[in-house]
């Protein structure tokens, strides 16, 4: 299991004080902020990894969509845009379109309900 996923499972599974929601990034029509660039990179790398997989694609797509959902508000990207990109990544990895859509919609909704904090973690890495 990737380290970021292990940390996220631990974060979600343990009781913590209520998570303060990240303020929404302004949606001015130009999505040029660093949150946009970061989330775009996460999606592109995840899609590239999915394309090379022959096993575990559903689980990997779900984890990617969950992570994207957790960062979505912070990034300022529109939900329908990233949903479409993730479904495309799932179908490009040979998942049936209906299965990819179901996985993405469910995982993004779960990620949105538990926003991730994109601040760098101690030691220089990202929390996501």
What's the multimeric state? single chain
What would you call the structural class?
A: mainly alpha
Helix fraction?
55-70%
Task: Name the overall outline.
Answer: globular
- Measure the end-to-end span: 14 Å
Number of strand elements: 0
Cα radius of gyration in angstroms: 14 Å
Fraction in beta strands: under 5%
The average pLDDT score comes to 80
SSE order, one letter for each helix or strand = HHHHH
Briefly say what this structure is.
This protein is mostly helical and 128 residues long. It has a domain at 32-113. It has helices at 3-13, 34-52, 57-75, 79-92, 97-113.
State the main characteristics:
single chain, 128 residues, mainly alpha, 5 helices, globular
Written overview of the protein:
By secondary structure, the chain is an all-alpha fold. It has a domain at 32-113. The protein is built from five helices and no strands. The chain has helices at 3-13, 34-52, 57-75, 79-92, 97-113. The two termini are 14 Å apart.
List the helices and strands and how they pair.
Elements: H1 3-13, H2 34-52, H3 57-75, H4 79-92, H5 97-113
């Amino acid at each position: 299991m990737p380290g970021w996923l292990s940390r996220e499972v631990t974060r979600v599974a343990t009781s913590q004080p209520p998570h303060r929601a990240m303020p929404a990034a302004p949606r001015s029509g130009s999505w040029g902020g660093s949150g946009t660039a970061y989330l775009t990179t996460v999606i592109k790398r995840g899609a590239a990894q999915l394309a090379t997989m022959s096993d575990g694609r559903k689980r990997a797509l779900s984890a990617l969509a969950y992570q994207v959902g957790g960062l979505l508000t912070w990034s300022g990207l529109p939900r329908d845009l990233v949903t479409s990109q993730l479904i495309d990544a799932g179908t490009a990895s040979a998942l049936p379109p209906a299965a990819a859509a179901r996985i993405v919609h469910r995982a993004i909704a779960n990620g949105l309900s538990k926003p991730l904090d994109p601040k760098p973690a101690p030691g220089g890495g990202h929390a996501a």
